[in-house]
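ASSEMBLY PREDICTION REQUEST
Request ID: AP-0331
Submitted by: J.K., bench scientist
Number of chains: two
Total residues: 736
Priority: normal
Notes: Please return the full assembly, not individual chains.
Input sequences:
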Amino acid sequence: MSAGRSERAETPMKTVRVALGERSYPIRIGAGTLDDAGAAIAKATGARQVAVLTVPGVGRRYAPRLLRSLKAAGVRARRIEVPDGDATKNLRQAAKLYDAFLEQGLDRRSALVALGGGMVGDLTGYAAATYLRGIPFVQVPTTLLSMVDASVGGKVAVNLKQGKNLVGAFHQPRLVWIDSETLRSLPARERAAGMAELIKHAAIRDARLFAQLERDVEAALALDPAVLNAAIARSCRIKAEVVAQDEREGGVRMLLNFGHTLGHAVEKKYRYGRVLHGEAVSMGMVYAARRSEELALAPAGTAARLEALLQRAGLPTELPQFARKAYLDALRVDKKKQDERIRFVVLRRIGEAETRPLTPEEIYPLRP
Amino acid sequence: MSAGRSERAETPMKTVRVALGERSYPIRIGAGTLDDAGAAIAKATGARQVAVLTVPGVGRRYAPRLLRSLKAAGVRARRIEVPDGDATKNLRQAAKLYDAFLEQGLDRRSALVALGGGMVGDLTGYAAATYLRGIPFVQVPTTLLSMVDASVGGKVAVNLKQGKNLVGAFHQPRLVWIDSETLRSLPARERAAGMAELIKHAAIRDARLFAQLERDVEAALALDPAVLNAAIARSCRIKAEVVAQDEREGGVRMLLNFGHTLGHAVEKKYRYGRVLHGEAVSMGMVYAARRSEELALAPAGTAARLEALLQRAGLPTELPQFARKAYLDALRVDKKKQDERIRFVVLRRIGEAETRPLTPEEIYPLRP
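STATUS: Completed
Returned structure:
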């Protein structure tokens, strides 16, 4: 913690504002700032009573500090632990949470805090969107993926047995509080998976961030706070810009699906085991970049540059050798398909993407 | 139906626009217009596939006509029946609906239609708010209460065992289609209960509508389309104005709670049996009007005038003789209480209301 304090002095907090009219909110990024979260949460929500939702591992490490800082800010706080893993993100768990909130006496002026990764953020956000017709919530993400991805956009959801994120809402947090020091306890493989989404944001919108990552992706993964926090802030800003333009996902927000069409196919085929989401997206991005070159949309070398960076981040870049039919079947049930065509995200160059309406066969052509 | 056609010619459709920025929508009020709903729903939602949610009695009477009109408009429609009664409005029923939607293949461009009373509207709206993070829905209310009350405001919810409407959202319909002829099949007692909310809107905001109802409340209850449709339209307009000023219920929307503080206490004490919501509100309004006079906020005679109109509508106007403690206990857990005080809605005169922060003891004082 003393290390955190001193680094904090060196790397001042950064703020990214997500501009959504009266639903606007700030993302505050620092290193070693968890102990200051309480006051910020109190100010952002006005709540005097909150529930902090977390999973056992993260909760053991960070919940005591967060609860202490909430109490110091005059907020009554209770920790609610949910089992780890995406299977927890369901309607039954949400129903249990409502019971816990009522027992705790949370009312419309109370708030929820999500302390953890994307699962905790999604579940907490969904509960916050629906409890008493919506109460405020704050995200305190502790994985790189949730820092750069799930913390921006307001998409909250739970899974049904038929598929992921089929029930949900758009519910914006009042504040996202990122302490990148919490990544110290994140396994290297998950850091890399989070880096995939960060690289994705650079690839579709920001050639300068991409070049920066080409300079020092290793330092970012080693949690050098100056490098990492700048990259997180830039990545959040990209997603925030896209979301602000397109809160409910009709147009430009589609670009965030870069790498996801094939990535989802891989995840589904593996039944969401074996590969992490970011790993599947990494494979999907390289595939999509190569396809962009083949369709003469991106200059030669684009895919190789993307692949090299992803590999340096420790990410897999080749799709598994499933039968072509398996990929086509997965593409055909893609929920983003429009009639027969899928709005497939292609690169025009590093830093620029667009969608193309392609059939599954055009996305995954027969190769001689 | 031929009667409906000819009356329709006499009473042209009325439109009330609920102004909520990009969430604005029209309420269309007519007599004998159910057969035209399909085209309007297709236009308002853009959907080519819908599910029509209803309860058995209403479904038997009106669903075939509605489905026929949807088909004529090129919309594939399926009827989904849920059991009648407020107990149906729960998370388990919502989960069953999600399964039915997936089985039917409803996607983000599909829509839901609520055909029935407030329960169906609330449940359908909640399912629409959460399925695939929100899809469009349309209300086709068939009770007077849901026409003048539930159809405006966007409050959708389900009950928990701990209380009513504890889980929900704000989700505005794309269209409300009111055919007042569907009220022919509504029992007289429920017509009267709906009239209570209509009289409430007049009492808090519109002295002219109140005077109109004093002239011909009997004709309205007998479903004279010219009288009734004008009153429904005026009542919807009042609620729409209030909601437009205050979509999420901080200020002026509180006025819609006139009569509800004591009304809820009565409903709760009866465990939501024996009295209809509108009947409880009728008792609560007369109580609140008398209290307004006692507190020298409203001129003498205000309560008597309100009471006389409610009685002509066939509504009860005296609170049950529960022990004072029972009322105080019910008031103390009122979820709208702010610290110790409740924002109690009082009348200043017929057509004008305001809130006063009062303690339970001030709302229900000890009487010698």
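REVIEWER COMMENTS: Chain A has two domains: 2-186, 231-363.
SIGN-OFF: pending second reviewer
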